[in-house]
Amino acid sequence: MKEKRILCYGDSNTWGYISGSNHQRYGSTERYPKILAKLLGINFEIIEEGLNSRTLISEDKRPGKEGKNGYNYLIPCLDTHDPLDLVVLMLGTNELKFAYQKTPEEIGVVLENFFITTILNRKSQITKKTPKLLLIAPPIVNENTTYCKENNKYLNASKKSQELNQIYENLAHKYHCHYISNVGLETGVDGIHLTKESHNLLANKIQKEIEEMIKNEEI
Predict the structure, then answer these.
(1) Which residues are paired to 8 by β-bridges?
(2) For residue 187, which of 175, 177, 178, 195 has the smallest C-alpha distance?
(3) Are 31 and 25 in contact (CB under 8 A)?
(4) The pLDDT value given to residue 1
(5) Contact, 43 vs 83, CB < 8 A?
(6) Could you report the per-residue pLDDT of 87-141, keeping only the tens digit for each?
(7) DSSP code, position 57
(8) What is the spatial distance between Cα 168 and Cα 162, in angstroms, rounded to a whole number?
(9) Cβ atoms within 10 Å of 1's Cβ, excluding its own
(10) Do residues 167 and 188 lie in contact, with contact meaning Cβ atoms separated by under 8 Å?
(11) Collapsing DSSP states into helix, strand and coil, what is residue 100?
């Protein structure tokens, strides 16, 4: 089988941020893109593109947080890693920050107009094909943690993150994409970042979806 190239595009949970740490990262056997690479084997190349604090389109105004707008880097990223067979997209948590004042519905519109349509229509300059998309609903935020309560950082985010699950699923159906819900994806002590166990669970869920795509000759 020809090697399949898969891009994992996301925020700190794709980067592997350890919940409750001071910017510590899960190791190469612990974060989900690396686990996925091991599960799939030598016929797959898994490309990690996780960035702490990455948003969909919002600009992070904090000092030292330049470049967090996920859309601004999306097309250069797709072209950098061309050709791609599949993009695994898990973004949206940072848009739930109180500072950005976005409803779940608004997040869904942004996801659709800036990300889903861009990815599905970005034709490879090498193969002339467009990548497939696997959409993942970000984990449910626990806004009652000390981290989330600080300066009301994630005020009202718990309910909003729950609502994103159905919104993302509806968009996946609309565009005939594959989809993984956030069911079973637990966050750690900060209420935002996935536990080590959830990284492993997510990798296994993604593997099953990819195997289904291979079986159906979608990628």
Answers:
(1) 48, 88
(2) 195
(3) yes
(4) 66
(5) no
(6) 999 999 999 999 999 999 999 999 999 999 999 999 999 999 999 999 999 999 9
(7) S
(8) 11
(9) 8
(10) no
(11) helix
Closest to 161 (Cα-Cα) out of 135, 139, 185: 139
Rounded Cα distance, 40 and 19, in Å: 26
Give buried/exposed letters for 126-155 (b at 16+ CB in 10 A, else e). eeeebbbbbbbbbbbbbbebebbeeeebbe
Q: How far apart are CA 82 and CA 7, in angstroms?
A: 10
Contact between 206 and 46 (Cβ < 8 Å): no
Neighbours of 47 (CB within 10 A): 17
Q: What single-letter amino acid sits at 162?
A: Q
Q: Compute the distance between CA of residue 144 and CA of residue 150 in angstroms, rounded to an integer.
A: 10
CA angle, 165 then 171 then 172, to 5°: 90
**Count of alpha carbons within 13 Å of 209, Cβ hemisphere only?**
21
pTM listed for this prediction: 0.97
- Residue appearing with tokens 């699923």: 169
